[in-house]
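Quarterly update, task 2.4: zinc ion-bound model.
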Amino acid sequence: MIYDCHSHTEFSSDSEMKAEDAIEAARKLGIGLIFTEHYDFDYKESKHYKEMDFLFDAKKYWESYEALRGEALLLGVEVGLTPGSIEANRKFINEVPFDQVIGSIHAIDKLDIYYPEYYEGKKKEQAYGHYLETMADMVKANPYIDVLGHIDYISRYSPYDDKEIGYKEYHDLVDLVLMNVLDTGTVMEMNTRRLDSKAVAESLLMIYARYKELGGQYVTIGSDAHKAENVGMNFKMAQDMVEFIGLKPVHFRERKIEYSK
Ligand SMILES: [Zn+2]
Ligand SMILES: [Zn+2]
């Protein structure tokens, strides 16, 4: 079974998706699903903390959803990677037996990259360079994560005309991220959110082909759905890309890698 390895229900501050609706959407598509709720320990230092805290109670989460867990549904978490949250994340992921742990960069220097503040006064080269550099460092500092989430997260929100992480321009830093991913036994996620554009797909293809070239074998595919209608979005494109490159789609159950077929 192919799994949508990245989704957020109402345990995530920014999602109101009901577990039942998400499960039903996945069932209709004939795919499995992994819930990966937001845990951004450091977010309390953000000026937007009052609106959303991006924290949740792991035990409550487990109690609420454990009965739903099975072949078609696994329970994971998406931890935000920042220098100040390394130990907190390590502790949190052991509070309950999560199936899969995604590590993601959502904030840099305490600035949420969803908001314009991170980009203010920065040229694209600086904003993207610092983002990739931070990602490489954080992967190395958090070797316990299973999956590196959405390498192209910054491209969703940055204000530049060309939002892509062009492999040609950023090859040194992209390579550093990918090498640290491989050194730490982490798996790259292919996030499908932006794959409805051919230009985006082509640009990301270069990065994932390079991952394969450097020795990468596995990839998780995840929609990052916060609404039931987005579960499994653009999966056909992602599966075609993964097959074309020669990577194997996987998911994690009880923190162990499994082939998704
Ligand atoms: Zn994320
Ligand atoms: Zn997410």
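Highlight for this quarter: The helical segments are 19-29, 58-65, 86-92, 124-141, 153-157, 167-183, 198-213, 235-245.
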